[in-house]
Specification:
By secondary structure, the chain is mainly beta. The longest helix is centred in the N-terminal third of the chain and has 10 residues.
Length: 282
Amino acid sequence: MSEKTSAVESTGPVLSLAPLFEDPRMRLLSRIALPFAAVLSALPLLPATAATAVPREAHLADVIQLTHGGQNAEAYWSPDGRQLIFQSTRPPYACDQIFRLPADGSGTPALISTGKGRTTCSYFTPDGSRVLFSSTHAAGDACPPPPDRSQGYVWAVYPSYEIWTAKPDGSDLQRLTDNSAYDAETTVCPKDGSLIFTSDRDGDLELYRMDADGKNVKRLTHAPGYDGGAYFSPTASRSSGAPRGQRVRSSTITRSSWRGAWYGRASSRSGSPTPTAARRAS
C-alpha cells in the first residue's frame, strides 16, 4: 500500500489517508492488493451454502458476513484458520477493543483485551498460543480523545499505545513496550517468533524488530517518512514494506493495512477461486 501522510491535530499526531488514491498508480495498486490482504493460503473455503451475494463486491464470490453491528475492522486469521482476531467498537465499550471470533461467524465475539482504553493492531503468534495487540489502557481507563476527521480520515498516533501479549482468552497479559511513544502495527516472524512493529520513539514513524519478550529492540528503517504495517514473508527470508521499497537486512516486510472482516473467494482471470479475507468495516 502507499505511504501515510502525517498531520497534527489538537489531540496529537495523526496519519492522514487522504493522499492514498490521488496517484492513479496507487489506485491501481490498491485494486490489486486489497483482495489479497491477510490471505492464509492453507485455509479451506467456507461452505458455499452459507454464502450470500453482495452486488457491490465485484471481485469476491461466496461472501459471508461475519460481524453484525458495531464497528469492526483489522481482522487476522489464527494459524489453524479457525479463529479471527479483530478490533471492534461495540456496546458496552466506547472505543475499540480486541475480540476473538470463530472464522465461520458462529458464536459471540469474545473479549480479549481489558475493556479499558483504546486498542488496535491485534495478531496471533505462529503457534496460536498467544496474541499481540496495542492498547492505551495503562495510561487510563478512558478512551483517548478522537482525532479531528473534519477534513477526511486520519489515524491517531497516540503516544500511550503500548504493545501487549496475552493468551487467546485474554489471560496472562504481559507488557512488551514501556515508553511515551506510539508502538503498534505488530506482526510476528514465523521462524523465530521475533516481532516487527512501528514506533515513533525516535521522532519519525519507523520499523523496529524485537524479541518475543520485548527485549533486544533494533531499529530497521532510517529514511524520513512513514514506515509501517509490516509483515514477514512466509519463509522469513526477506522483508519488504518500507514504502520506498528498501530492504531491511535479511527479512522483507510486506506492507498492508487492509485486513479482513468479510470472507469470500477472489476469482482469478482463469476463474480459479482463491481464499481471501478483505477489510470491511461493518
